[in-house]
Amino acid sequence: MKNVLIASFDMEVGGVERSLISMLENFDYKTYSVDLMLYRQQGDFLSLLPPQVNLLKEIGEYTTFRKSIKEIFKEGQIIIGISRVLAKVNSDLKGKLARIEEPGYIQMQLMWRYALPFLPNFEKEYDVAISYLWPHYFVANKVRAKKKISWIHTDYSVIETDIKSDLEMWNKFDHILAVSEACKESFLNKYPELRNKVIVMENIVSKEFIKKMAEENLEHSMFNDKQFKVVTVARLSHAKGIDNAVKALKILRDKGYTDICWYVVGYGGEEKVLRDLIKELNLTDHFILLGKQVNPYPFINHADLYVQPSRYEGKAVTVVEAQVLQKPVIITNYSTASSQVIDGVNGLIVELSEEGIANGIVNLYQDVRKRDEISFNCKLNEINNKTEMQVLYELI
After folding, report:
1. Mean pLDDT of 314-324
2. Which of 92, 240, 301, 369 is most buried, by CB atoms within 10 Å?
3. Is the pLDDT of residue 100 over 60?
4. 372: CB partners within 8 A, 6+ apart
């Protein structure tokens, strides 16, 4: 039996975390013994971990990376706290000099680089160590394994990174798994030296689990809403483009489409900014932030239309889940969009702007036949998790 380590950040509600749960549910535990290392043992999905998975003890130093600097110093992690301060100062400086809109990724790179010498090594040696979610420095630098595998869940063409620093890390992995062909190519456009390492493995999605959870008898006013309901499930972050969704709804209402209500399931750092924007545009009763929901599927199930307004994605798990529930889907034309949706067949791809989103919604709002056609095509799309798991087993 081979010993496998899988590392990820936590089990908070999110698409990547749902995909990890699905992968763990499909693992061959007769062949593989699986340890799970979470940097922080928190999140509503912790209870969904399969019993065959051995959840390892939390390590104090690794819990600090999503805590505030104040919290870190209060807990006595002085050196880690200093590394965080240095990372923030230097990333802000680099961001201003290079006019980077979001220097957050560079800040995380610097944070781990500065902290690495002071983080404990992992004692146990594994046959395979898998880093499921960035940052990958832990598995790259602190774990002993005969083989190392990492995952790409995002579109690297839109992220500013320190390429030299990244290459040092990526070169410590034997294989890098991308969640879509487009995700792979966007990564290789930035890191062409790594072409021989990168392989595509689609996200694992449990069709049976999604349908079962969608039928859960929750009570919410949305379920009795007779308006045309648009639903989005996403983090409240710049990447997910929820601000563009708010502006798109304003355009729709100004054009007379006053019976459309937009519901967003999710939470994140931009909540206050979004609430202020919603209030400013007089959409308080029409653009509803539902917050964190452990089970988002009943909300998708009650939607007339699912919209993903993202600025960039690797491959949005939530779009696949909406398609499993046979919902007509609209996604914006981010660079990996064509790997997610066949335009006009199992969804629409629209211009990445508030006007493009609004026009796409009008298109499907007015065309019931087209909505039904897209829903039917989603029903025909079969998900084969066994094929995807075989990709991983061959690498192991």
Report:
1. 90
2. 240
3. no
4. none
Compute the average pLDDT of residues 318-328. 94
Long-range CB contacts (< 8 A, 24+ apart) of 360-366?
360/307, 360/330, 361/230, 361/248, 361/252, 361/257, 361/260, 361/305, 361/307, 361/330, 362/252, 362/255, 362/257, 364/305, 364/328, 364/330, 365/228, 365/257, 365/260, 365/305
Arithmetic mean of pLDDT, 261-284? 96
pTM for this structure? 0.78
Residues with Cβ within 8 Å of 252's Cβ and at least 6 positions away in sequence, in order, are 260, 358, 361, 362
Task: Tell me the C-alpha distance between 116 and 309, whole Å.
Answer: 36
Instruction: Using pLDDT thresholds of 50, 70 and 90, give the confidence band for residue 97.
Output: very low
Q: How far apart (Å, rounded) are the C-alpha atoms in residues 40 and 320? A: 27
Residue 274, pLDDT > 80, answer: yes
Mean pLDDT, residues 383-391 taken together:
75
CA nearest neighbour of 87 among 103, 99, 98, 101: 103
150: which 2 tokens? 């990492």
Q: Please enumerate in sequence order all residues whose Cβ is within 8 A of that of 38, keeping only pairs 6 or more positions apart, or say none.
A: 7, 8, 9, 10, 11, 55, 56, 58
- The amino acid at 71: E
User: What is the C-alpha separation between 157 and 25, in angstroms, rounded?
Assistant: 32
pLDDT at 102 over 80: no
Q: What is the pLDDT of residue 145?
A: 97
Closest to 225 (Cα-Cα) out of 197, 263, 194: 263
Identify whether the C-beta of residue 54 lies closer than 8 Å to the C-beta of residue 33.
yes
Provide the residue type at 319 as one letter: V
Beta bridge partner(s), residue 349: 331
Cα–Cα distances (Å) from 43 to 11, 47, 63, in that order, read 4, 9, 13
Tell me: the pLDDT tens digits for 358-384?
999 999 999 999 999 999 998 877 666
Chain-centre distance for alpha carbon 221: 27
In whole angstroms, give the CA distance from residue 341 to residue 330: 9
Residue 243 in contact with residue 234, Cβ under 8 Å?
no
Residue 356's CB: how many other CB atoms inside 10 A?
A: 18
What's the mean per-residue pLDDT of the chain?
89
- The whole-angstrom distance between residue 250's C-alpha and the CA centroid of its chain comes to 27
The CA–CA distances, whole Å, from 63 to 9, 37, 59, 88 equal 9, 11, 7, 18
| Rounded-to-integer distance, Cα 153 and Cα 186, Å | 11
Q: Which two tokens stand for residue 296?
A: 């988002």
